[in-house]
Amino acid sequence: MNTYKKLLAATALAMLTGGLMAGGAAAKTLVFCSEAAPGGFDPALYTGGETLDATGQAVFNKLVEFKPGTSEVEPALADSWTISDDGLEYTFKLHPGVKFQTTSYFTPSRELNADDVVFSFERQKEGSPWAKYVDGASYEYFEGMDFPKLIKSVEKVDDLTVKVTLTKPNAPMLANLAMDFSSIVSKEYADKLMADGTPGKLNEQPVGTGPFQFVDYQLNTAIRYEANPDYYKGKVKLDSLIFAVTPDAAVRVQKLKAGECQLTIYPDPADVEGLKADTNLNVIQEEGLNVSTLAYNTTQAPFDKPEVRKALNQAIDKKAIVDAVYLGQGTPAINPIPPTMWSYNKSIKDDEYNPEAAKAALEKAGVKDLSMKIWAMPVARPYMPNGRRTAELIQSDFAKVGVKAEIVTFDWQEYLKQASDPKHDGAVIIGWTGDNGDPDNFLATLLSCQAVGTSNRAAWCNQEFTDLINKAAVVSDPAERTKLYEESQVVFKREAPWATLAHSLVTTAMTKNVSGYVPSPLGVHNFASVDVAE
Amino acid sequence: MFRYIASRVLLLIPTFIGISFVAFIFIRLLPGDPVIALAGERGMTPERHQLLMDQFGFNRPIWEQYFSFLWGIFHGDFGTSIASKRPVLADFRALFPATLELSICAMLFAVIIGIPAGIFAAVKRGSIFDQLSMGIALVGYSMPIFWWGILLIILFAGILHWTPVSGRMDLIYFFKPTTGFMLIDSLISGGKGAFKSAVSHLILPTIVLGTIPLAVIARQTRSAMLEVLGEDYVRTARAKGLEPKRVIGVHALRNAMIPVITTIGLQMGLLMAGAILTETIFSWPGIGKWMIDAISRRDYVVVQGGLMLVALIVMVVNLIVDLLYAVINPRIRVK
Fold first, then answer.
1. Which of A144, A245, A413 faces B32 most closely, judged by CB atoms?
2. Which residues of A106-118 are buried (b: 16+ CB within 10 A; e: fewer)?
3. How far A15 CA lies from chain B's nearest CA (Å)?
4. Band of the pLDDT at A21, cuts 50, 70, 90?
5. Which of A56, A210, A397, B191, by CA, is between 20 and 30 Å from B159?
6. pLDDT tens-digit profile of A138-166?
7. pLDDT above 50: residue A24
8. What stretch of H or E contains A78?
9. Where are the domains of chain B?
10. What is chain A's Cα-based Rg?
11. Max Cα–Cα distance, chain A, nearest Å
12. Which residue has better confidence, B329 or A84?
């Protein structure tokens, strides 16, 4: 056979096999243009949204989960639960008959039981054989949500009953259990991997109970899933789901318009109007559970005086920031938590934008010729599209009241590290997107005394405030918690450790044939309810 | 000949040590560390930070870390990424072919258009073609890659629908990579339309990445040709009555190509810098974007391992070229 004939034969064969493969992918498929490649496939090892979408949301379930579109907790793998009177014991009744996914790399021999639940938490503890099962393993959410100190034990009562015992009452506990790091993994699969000497596969080829099962991941390119036929809530409408990794926001928009994907997230604010005008697309916008702030270093003079901070807050034209930086895709922030969150205190009035009054207040506080630093974050985040531009606007606002501001910036890792140090110089532009919808996740995480040195970038330790939120974390009555959080917001506004800047709208764009997508206020993306018209 | 080969191979040892040291130290000179990146906005307590730095071995004495890095390399272990927890070597193997494929295509594009354009501009010096092509080359050279990429996407993918927007292959094709080069894999296992899809995905990134080298090569070819065309031997060839085609194509071009080939070699190295942006715009899963992400996360292991792997490849290629020189040119091996 000469070379030409060989080539022809090879091409014909390739066409034949390829045709079959391409035909197989023609079922109901949703291509999601995602913003970044996942770190891996064990949801407990990562904190980035791109990894949580690809793991906890697609492949796994939790004991309890957030009701779609809300931050309310509803039953999931646990049908019901009881909490002891002292708030220390949570007893969960598991849903019977839940099957783990059968994939090309694992066939489960049993259904979900209490052993899986116990294992899913125990493995994240220091000293467990799974604590360092891959190089670089660290369970940052488990640590960050204080689980090692908070959870005394997770025990099996019987096959379908699990008891979680806490060391102290913790009202946000259920919300924490609905987060992706609390995903329930298959103990049977993990044991098999450990016995085979390949524990690392737990982070490469996941096995969960969720709506989609993992098929393949081409590094930094695409993740492929197929519908889990045994899903305990019934097979989802899609047959397959593909995450097309597309890091550039403008390119995601172009891909959506060209039909290369059917749904995408986080477009540039400047592209949103164009997306809305496109008759082939649907655009959903909703208030994100987020806040952006200018956090004064409250340990540094003159920012240690509330009257100085309040005066500066009066000098900032937030409306101009929302218009120029968020291009209208946001609202000026009044409180440290977003208005969609329960316990948001509606009665609080914002500091009125008034440069004259600000100037007078600064003079009254004895501040003259103030020079300060404003930290401009170097990366865009859903809560802050452009740190530099925001810093420039604040700089010019401050100039109007006689405050000379110098803009400084660092590489993002360095920025986070230095801003955490209570000795940093000046005011930091930063923000937060809620993890679990509980006010504690904003107020305690960002403003309590215990968070000074980590995520409390104002280094603000106000005992009155901290006592209120610490109390709210241990009482279980929602009405009482609401009252305590509302009070804490009054203290916050009075003391003004931050200038609250804005809450952004979160935009999702999809082609017209996509239906059933419910955006989550928590910034995760779940496709279990999505359908695609053919 | 044996002495020559031995000297070349021995020279690799100090080069290797030098590069390994630079690769190791460069990322550590930047402020920040890989642990802080794990927690994001949440931050972590100094105690937790210390614990993880200990756990990952970044608190050991610097020389100990360096030697364990070298020790790993000698055993084929380039470490595991702190961010992704995947082995560096496996990721490199998966991503490098994408960068190489794109770089080769971009360079071919630059050479195939740049050299003829440069020759023609030199021969027709002062003509409209000369002025126009050199003007375009200057614009091409000054074009910000990011803007140029988005512009081409909007025009050719968005408005005209001639090419896909980004990626390496239409997602309906799903096959395990054999070589990692999509043009080859699509022929081997991709099936009907896969090769066409691979080619169409390559067009825009090739143009974007190839634009700057194209401009440089065209201008370099032009100036080298102009210089050679003024030489005595060219005049002599003309005076002998040789056809202009032969004078330009044989006598002038061969000598003019010497600096051009050097330029091409240098541009090939510079392509890496352009590849970082091109890969980001076109969602191209190569090592440029991978390295830049690792640098911004201070993923020491990936940065040092990735740099080392690139350097090893360059070293081996250089060695082969040196040996080939010796085979071709006896003067070199005698020296």
1. A413
2. bebeebbbbbbbb
3. 4
4. very low
5. B191
6. 998 999 899 999 999 999 999 999 999 99
7. no
8. strand A78-83
9. 1-75, 88-332
10. 25
11. 96
12. A84
The whole-angstrom separation of Cα A297 and Cα B251 is: 73
pLDDT of residue A23 exceeding 80: no
User: For A161-181, what is the mean pLDDT?
Assistant: 96
Listed in order, strand segments (DSSP E) in A288-415 are 290-296, 330-332, 371-375, 404-408
Residue B57 CB-half CA count within 13 A: 18
Angle ∠(B296,B298,B303) on CA atoms, nearest 5: 95
Mean pLDDT, residues A401-427 taken together:
92
Q: Which residue among B36, B150, B192 places its CB closest to the CB of A15? A: B192
Cα–Cα distance for residue pair A249/A358, rounded to 1 Å: 38
Q: Which of B36, B153, B171 sits opposite A242 (nearest CB)?
A: B171
Distance CA A502, CA A513 (A): 33
Q: Which of residues 253-282 of B touch A (CB under 8 A)?
A: 280-282
Four-CA torsion B324, B327, B330, B331, nearest 10 degrees: 10
The mean-pLDDT minimum among A71-85, A157-171, A382-396, B251-265 falls in B251-265
φ, ψ of residue A297 in degrees (nearest 5): -80, 100
Which of B77, B85, B152, B300 to substitute to test the interface with A, most A CBs within 10 Å? B85
- Can you read off the two tokens belonging to residue A352? 């009125």
**CA–CA separation, B224 vs B227, rounded Å?**
5
CATH of domain B88-332: 1.10.3720.10
**Token digits of residue A517:** 């997508």
Residues of B in contact with A221 (CB under 8 A): 167-168, 283, 285
ipTM > 0.90 for the complex: no
Evaluate whether B33 touches B55 at the Cβ level (below 8 Å). Answer: no
Which residue has tokens 């100085």? A308
Task: Report how far residue A411's alpha carbon sits from residue B87's, in angstroms, rounded to the nearest whole number.
Answer: 26
**pLDDT per residue over B39-76, tens digit each?**
888 888 888 899 999 989 999 999 999 999 999 999 99
Q: Which of residues 118-157 of B touch A (CB under 8 A)?
A: 150, 153-154, 157
How far, in Å, CA of B67 to CA of A382, rounded?
Answer: 42
Cβ contacts of B68 within 8 Å, gap of 6 or more: B57, B60
As a whole number of angstroms, the distance between CA B48 and CA A35 comes to: 29
Q: What is the pTM of this model?
A: 0.90
SS3 B5: helix
Per residue in A234-291, pLDDT tens?
999 999 999 999 999 999 999 999 999 999 999 999 999 999 999 999 999 998 899 9
Least confident of A248-257, B245-254, B283-292, B320-329: B320-329
